[in-house]
Amino acid sequence: MPESRGSSKWHALLARCASGLVLLLLLTAALLALGSRPALAAQDAPRVVITTDGEGDDIASMHRFLLYANEFEVEGIVSSASQWHWAGDPDATPPIPANSWHGTDWIPELIDRGYREAHPRLLQHDRHYPRPEALLRVIKQGNIARGAEMARNTEGSEWIKEILLDREPGPVYLQAWGGTNTIAAALRSIRDEYAGTPQWDEIYREVSDKAVVYIIQDQDSTYRNYLAKAWPDVRTIINRDQFEAFAYSWPGYNAPAGRRLLQKDWVSANLLRGPLMSDYPVIGNGFTSLCRPAAMCQDGDWFSEGDTPAFLHTIPTGLRQLEDPANGGWGGRFLKVGDRLWIDDPRYFGIDRYRAVDRTPEPIETATLAAAAKAGDTDAKFTWVDVAGHTGSIPFRAGDRVTVGTGAAAETRTMVRTGTGSSAPMRLPEPAAAGSTNVPYIASGRSAVELGKGAPLTIGTGENRETVTITDVGSPRLETTAAAPAAAGDTVLRVARTGNFCIEFANCLTPATVRSGDVLTIGTGADQFTATVASVGTPFASGSGLTLTAPLPAAVAGGTAVLSRGTGLTVTPALTAAHAANETMTSPGSGLELDEPLRGVHAIGAPVTSDHSPHWPQSRWTEAIQNDLAARTAWTVDPLEATNHAPRVDGPLNVEAAPGQTVRLAGTATDPDGDDLVARWWQYREAGTYDGDVTVAGASSLDASYVVPENAKPGDTIHTILEVRDDRAPYMTGYHRVITTVGEKPAGGGPTPPPVPNPQPPVPGPGPKPVTPAKPSYGRTVAALRAQRNAAAATLRRLGLGRLLGRGARRTVTVDQAGTYTEQVLLRVRRNGKPVRTVVVARGTRRFAAAGRATITLKPTAAGRRALRGQRRATLTVRVTFRRASGGKALVTSRTVRVSRR
């Protein structure tokens, strides 16, 4: 963790080749052993800032985060409020009371106690674990007074501001474990200071390119009300729903194999060990169970880590999720809905796209038939109850395979349309007259809110019972209260949340229960008056509330009754009888439409399951994630030689191939412990754009292949994952992703040329090597050069300043033609914040008389030693150059890397 931030910019220099000749360079990184065991895979560590509201699951997430602190440059750990938790402010006018606030002392206490004691053992496994003092220095207090407060400049917001303006190469991953208010305050402060100045355009662009915000659930209104509007070019990932598979609802959203690793027996045996994890939160260990469904939970089970996906996304696993959140990885898979916006459920923004779902190996979320289905039926009425007890729309989409029934009676069909499910019984909130075509309803869980158009609605019982059809779903009747006082003349009324009351999707993914045009009745008796809603914000005293079409005619005290009748359900035909308040209303929903008729009879209550789940993009990784954590927990307890470390996996990254062409998948894998490895290639269908399956031949070996289907279209992408795990318990897993882009078939019907992979530096060790293409394209050659530049930078990080300047570094270089290969390590010296000269710190050159392999030695320079004398840390640039023997422009690429003294 840097004690001061440099001001060097990251320069990427690429000189284009002047001729048609193309060269291929392949660098094998010489990773040095640290201690008595090989070092972990080297790479540039992502810069991260955590903001946390200190909820119980944040505490659990922090335990895990500290075991992964070697994977990051931890730039900040900042306390922040959310709409659920805030510290209050007794000095405010009027005073702001605290709400479910856990304080801020738990963070330094956890680091100064458990992490400090574990740190010496962790260093045996990776010297990049930060010192406890370095972590303690970056703990800051942000905007914690109340939920969405972002007007103050706090220690935490100013710290984030400084990081975003430090001119060091980005990106910086800003993680919102609670609300985004402190992040918003930092960006607001930057805009306040620089907007309207000559530097503003450059600063806006640089900050927008640098900041990457990962939001868990969106826990206050500052993203929607400020960040999305004032900083639309900041890359943002919103995990609205997938995180639930790693949060309180884990029993219902994980397959049985993953669920086992979240239950008492496994957790107590593998996680509750050592100085850091012995007080890891579990149900009943001072943490009240919020587990859903409660019947599947017991004391000693895993508690929750709802915020952990934010940093799981940032771990360089080999899944390439940092290149594009749509690729999917340990932190979930997201749909791109804007130039710089990704989300797992576009409905949150009112976008008519279904959420990200993955095909599951076995059903996770199950519905049941709400009405018997008979032979010949092409529809099925169902009831779906989620883990929180809500009923309504089944969480699947048209095109999914659905199975009705079990055993020999089970029938599998494709869903042509998926509608709403059977609602729980509701009560008519007020009388409905005969002849009326409008029926009021109450938003009681999702049962009412998700009533669908075209679904039947049954009202009353006995002789008074009648069934009509819903033609439109309006807003429900809502009874709530004013959450904060409002003065006469105000045009904003802040209201409380009651039951499933959601406004502007602030707390759930159902249609908003208050809408523009709804009429509010405020107060009671003679003081009662009405107001009309103009626009809808967020609930609670800290939210943005309801904007009204006209100023309030009178003051409204906090707690005043607020009633919205809503616009109700439009039905056809008109009601034939009058119905009194509290009469029963039910709807079987609009159900599923199947592509083929059912052949058998299926009784009420028969299971209805789908092969897709919106939580599987997260929970598909649960087993690997939990085993990885168990292995790291053992690092803090067991002898070094008895612990496990992840395999190193590599290979080509990108391939271009035409339909009918065979793609070779050549991976490499080694294990730092010498363990046997099990490999598996599989297609991540949902991450690609090709809508079909491919069959991988030799999927259980490193050297596999598949044929691009004939119906694949040019531009389609196919994602294949090499998953390699070792055979030591708890096992650890490494990954490598190959993305194939489908090209045009050759004109004239001639033979399809062989595919051309994009070679990357393989990990040293036994096993098949990537196939070297005969004629790589210019773009692929540039990518190869960048890869060896990255590997060189990663090696420098491992060496540190002391070792680099003491003995230099050696590496192997392979070229495919005669030429001169050069590596330089550069230091840009600055004076008064301005660059004055560049010093070559180390340099190595090798001439190749022909294609081949040779060792290059990077030798330190005297000028470099002088320039770096006494420095603990420096920002260096690794420049890699190749000039072919026949002349022409050199191919050059560079990478900035921060190096500390070891």
How far the N terminus sits from the C terminus, by CA atoms, comes to 13 Å
Summarize the amount of helix as a percent range. Answer: 10-25%
Structural class based on helices, strands and sheet pairing: alpha+beta
Radius of gyration: 30 Å
Q: Low-confidence parts lasting 5 or more residues at pLDDT below 50?
A: 1-43, 445-449, 504-510, 756-781
Q: What fraction strand?
A: 25-35%
Q: Number of helical segments?
A: 17
Number of strands: 45
Task: Provide the spatial order of strands within the biggest beta sheet.
Answer: 4-3-2-5-6-7-9-8
What does this structure look like?
It is a single chain. The protein is α+β, with helices and mostly antiparallel strands and 902 residues long. 18% of the residues lie in helices and 26% in strands. The strands form 9 sheets. It has an 8-stranded mixed beta sheet. A 7-stranded antiparallel beta sheet has the order 1-40-43-42-41-44-45. Strands 12-28-15-14-29-11-13 form a 7-stranded antiparallel beta sheet, with no helix packed on it. A hairpin with a 6-residue loop joins strand 37 and strand 38 (733-742). The chain is globular.
Could you list some keywords that capture this structure?
disordered N terminus, 18% helix, 7-stranded antiparallel sheet, 8-stranded mixed sheet
Question: Quick gist of this model?
Answer:
The protein has 902 residues and is an alpha+beta fold. It is 18% helix and 26% strand.
